[in-house]
C-alpha cells in the first residue's frame, strides 16, 4: 500500500495483520451493508478482492514485494517511509492454511498441505530459485523485503507478535496520524504448535530458513 497522505509505503505480507494496518491508514475503506463506512471487519462482506463493500486505495497489488513497488514508484520509494510486519513462519503457515481451508478448523489436513507447499517451493535447487522467489513473495519476509543481493529495502519492520505496540511506535516516530488498529480478517485457532508433526516442522524450517535466521524465530 502506498499512502501519499501519510508519505509511507506498507509492504503487506500474508497473515501479518496487514488489512488492519491498511484500514488504519485508509489504504482500504470498509462499508457495511447499507454502504456506510465501518471499521468492523465482516468476513462475509469484506474478504476477497472484488467486493462492493471494500474500497481499495492501495495503489498496487496487495502483496507486491518492496522491489516491485520500488520499480512502480521510484520517486516515492526513495522519499517515503517504507515498513512491513513479519510473523513467526510456523504460526504464519497455520494462519494461512486456515484462511484457505476454513472448513478444516481442526487442521486434519494441515501436515499434507505443508508437504505439498514444500514440494512446490523446492528451495534447494539453484535452477528453481526464480520459482521459489515467485511462490514465496508476499509470504516470506526475506523474499518480499530484500533485494537480490540480500539488502533490506524497508526502513522499519514490526513484529506481528507485538503488532499494536510496534505500529504505534512507528506512527509516533514518523508523525503518522493513523487510526487505532481494528481487528480484521483474523483466523481463530489454537496454539500453532498443535498443528504440526516433526516432518512438517522441518518442512517449514527449510522453506523459510532465511526468514528464521534473519529474524531469529524458532518453533
Helix coverage percent: 40-55%
Span of the ends, CA to CA: 30 Å
Return the structural class.
alpha/beta
Global shape? globular
Question: What this model shows, in words?
Answer:
- This protein has about 220 residues and is of the alpha/beta class.
- The chain has one domain.
- The chain is about 40% helix and about 10% strand.
- The chain contains eleven helices and seven strands.
- A four-stranded mixed β-sheet has the order 1-2-6-7. Strands 4-3-5 form a three-stranded antiparallel β-sheet.
- A hairpin with a 5-residue loop joins β3 and β4.
- α6 packs parallel to α10.
- The chain is globular, with a radius of gyration of 17 Å.
- The mean pLDDT is about 90.
Observed structural traits:
alpha/beta; 3-stranded antiparallel β-sheet; 219 residues; 11 helices; globular
What topology emerges from the helices and strands here?
Blueprint: E1 2-3, E2 8-11, H1 18-24, E3 28-31, E4 37-38, H2 43-46, E5 54-56, H3 66-72, H4 74-79, E6 81-86, H5 89-100, H6 110-121, H7 129-136, H8 141-145, E7 156-159, H9 163-174, H10 198-207, H11 209-215
Parallel strand pairs: 2-6, 6-7
Antiparallel strand pairs: 1-2, 3-4, 3-5
Amino acid at each position: 500500500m502506498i499512502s501519499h497522505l501519510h508519505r509511507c509505503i506498507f509492504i503487506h505480507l500474508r497473515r501479518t495483520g496487514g488489512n488492519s494496518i491498511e484500514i488504519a491508514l485508509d489504504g482500504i475503506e470498509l462499508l457495511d451493508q447499507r454502504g456506510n463506512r465501518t471499521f468492523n471487519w465482516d468476513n462475509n462482506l469484506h474478504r476477497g478482492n472484488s467486493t462492493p463493500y471494500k474500497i481499495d486505495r492501495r495503489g498496487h497489488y496487495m502483496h507486491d514485494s518492496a522491489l516491485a513497488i520500488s520499480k512502480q514508484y521510484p520517486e516515492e520509494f526513495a522519499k517515503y517511509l517504507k515498513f512491513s510486519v513479519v510473523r513467526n513462519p510456523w504460526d504464519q503457515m497455520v494462519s494461512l492454511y486456515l484462511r484457505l481451508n476454513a472448513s478444516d478448523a481442526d487442521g486434519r489436513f494441515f501436515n499434507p498441505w505443508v508437504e505439498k507447499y514444500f514440494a512446490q517451493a523446492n528451495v534447494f535447487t539453484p535452477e528453481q530459485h526464480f520459482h521459489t522467489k515467485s511462490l514465496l513473495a508476499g509470504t516470506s519476509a526475506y523474499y518480499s523485503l530484500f533485494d537480490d543481493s540480500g539488502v533490506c529495502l524497508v526502513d522499519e519492520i514490526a513484529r506481528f507478535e507485538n503488532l499494536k505496540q510496534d505500529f504505534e511506535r512507528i506512527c509516533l516516530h514518523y508523525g503518522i496520524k493513523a487510526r487505532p488498529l481494528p481487528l480484521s480478517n483474523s483466523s481463530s485457532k489454537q496454539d500453532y504448535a498443535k498443528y504440526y508433526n516433526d516432518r512438517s516442522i522441518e518442512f517449514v524450517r527449510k522453506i523459510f530458513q532465511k526468514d528464521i535466521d534473519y529474524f531469529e524465530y524458532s518453533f
